[in-house]
Amino acid sequence: MRKLHRATTAGLAALLLLTGQTQAAPTPASDSGDVAARTFLLGCVAYAGDYAKLRDHLRPGQDMYLPELSPTDAVPFLQGREGTVWARPDAGVTLALLKPDETCVVFVRKVSTEALFRRLETGLRSSLSKSFTVRTAGEETKGAMRSRFIDLIPSGSYREDLIKLYTTEPAGMRVVLTTSETANPNLQAIITLGTRSP
The pTM is what? Predict the structure, then answer.
């Protein structure tokens, strides 16, 4: 299963590279939804399965450069785990890479949650639609928290290649956008990428 996950995520990275989506991270502070969506797509999605390479691209002078937070400032974003955190304080966007399972998370302080969801969905469709079926997959509400799901399911010849290689149906990936207007006044959205349950 781990090999299948790596192959699927490697496909995500290759497709984003081919579609030209891995250009430099946004520079001037603008719409926090745009900055958050681009940070997620160009970071978490483009480098899924190879976050060591993403860490290199986040260093000063590199195309995805973001300032790294000190260990003390990173604590609220690490959720009690080890990891590294980078931030765009001018846009209220923070990217965290959590260990040991190499989870990539984007936190957004203030954002139009509807616009952010639309940007994520549009970006995923335009970047990955040649090899993945990108579909909204419902939502879940728990108290003040709302989670919306976008599934990335290998399709076409890419799906066929994965089945030939691993002799099993690929599960694909799931993007989760969790939002709340009231749960935390300093945090409105969290975006994650994980394996989709078959």
Answer: 0.83
